[in-house]
Design brief:
The complex is a heterodimer of chains A (about 120) and B (about 150). Chain A has about 120 residues and is of the alpha+beta class. Chain A folds into two domains: about 15-85, Orthogonal Bundle (Arc Repressor Mutant, subunit A), CATH 1.10.10; about 85-115. Chain A contains six helices and three strands; from the N terminus they run H-H-H-E-H-H-E-E-H. Chain A has helices at about 5-15, 15-25, 25-35, 45, 55-65, 85-115, and strands at about 40, 70-75, 80-85. In chain A, strand 2 (about 70-75) and strand 3 (about 80-85) form a beta hairpin. The longest helix of chain A has 29 residues, at about 85-115. By secondary structure, chain B is an alpha+beta fold. Chain B is built from four helices and seven strands. Chain B has helices spanning about 15-25, 25-35, 125-130, 135-150; strands at about 5-10, 35, 45-50, 60-70, 75-80, 95-105, 110-115. A seven-stranded antiparallel β-sheet of chain B has the order 1-7-6-5-4-3-2. The radius of gyration of chain B is 19 Å and the shape is globular. In chain B, about 20% of the residues are buried. The chains are: A alpha+beta (about 120), B alpha+beta (about 150). The interface of A and B includes residues 92 and 110 of A.
């Protein structure tokens, strides 16, 4: 592996734990599921059909906003929330890198036992 | 690829006993894994050493050996690629690495699993998230196209 790749791996591993934690909740997961269609939603729209109050939904959205997978924009009196896909893509990239490290280690093991 | 684990398999043209030794003899493990270990592996014991990968010799290696079932299963927990000396990885939940060996006609099939990349209590939750692919896949394509065009 190259030096550059290894450093980028170090950078990638930092933010994933809070993100996994934020996604580890049924309500937040369902909010993300709704938002990941790409269309922005207001809190009222997100509260519709839910048993939770506006306040509860707002709190969940704030958790998602803190880990950067939801972004809010104010339009008039209302906030509209939208999905930001990059952090989740980061998790995938991180696993791809770890996976590649294993490929290289197993290749070395192969030459070692077959040599 | 699943979001919480890595699975690999590789055919090795060597007998199971040979592969077992390469995995569990600490000197042999160190040769191909590129780490100089302080002593032999033993279940339940911490294994420590120094990374020998060129450019990363300043890094310590640490794992806790879990299972050693001769010629079948070798496993340890660790913090994968803990490459930043300044970060205290001990507060993170470790991942579990398992090597499973199976005898084949030509040698050994080695199955590697590293699991526990998520801290989500139930795998099902993440699964549910992944399964919701419709809008998500579309969205990812948009981003990809966007990035491709922008660069």
């Amino acid at each position: 592996m190259s030096h550059k790749r290894r450093s980028s791996l170090a950078a990638k591993r930092q933010p994933r734990a809070p993100l996994f934690a934020a996604l580890g909740d049924e309500t937040r997961l369902s909010l993300v599921a709704k938002l990941c269609g790409g269309q922005p939603y207001s809190i009222s729209q997100l509260t519709e059909g839910s048993k939770l109050t506006r306040q509860a939904i707002t709190k969940h959205l704030q958790v998602l906003e803190r880990v950067g997978i939801v972004h809010s924009a104010h339009t008039g009196r209302e906030s509209r929330f939208e999905f930001v896909p990059e952090p989740i893509e980061e998790i995938k990239k991180y696993l791809d890198l770890v996976s590649e490290q294993w490929d290289q280690a197993l290749t070395r093991l192969k030459s070692f036992v077959e040599g | 690829m699943a979001n919480d684990r890595i699975e690999k398999q590789i055919e090795l043209n060597a007998p199971v006993s040979r592969v077992w030794r390469a995995l569990t003899d600490y000197r042999e493990f160190g040769e191909w894994f590129r780490v100089k270990l302080d002593g032999p592996f033993a279940p339940g014991q911490v294994s420590r050493g120094q990374v020998t990968y060129p450019g990363y010799e300043h890094l310590k290696w640490e794992a806790v050996v879990q299972k050693m079932e001769p010629e079948q299963l070798f496993s340890f927990t660790w913090h994968p690629y803990a490459v930043e000396p300044k970060i205290d990885y001990s507060q993170e939940t470790p991942t579990l690495v398992e090597f499973r060996l199976k005898k084949t006609t030509s040698g050994t099939l080695l199955l590697l699993t590293e699991s526990g990349f998520d801290k989500i209590p139930s795998d099902r939750r993440l699964e549910a998230f992944r399964m919701n692919d419709g809008g998500w896949t579309e969205q990812m394509k948009n981003i990809e196209n966007h990035v491709a065009q922008a660069s």
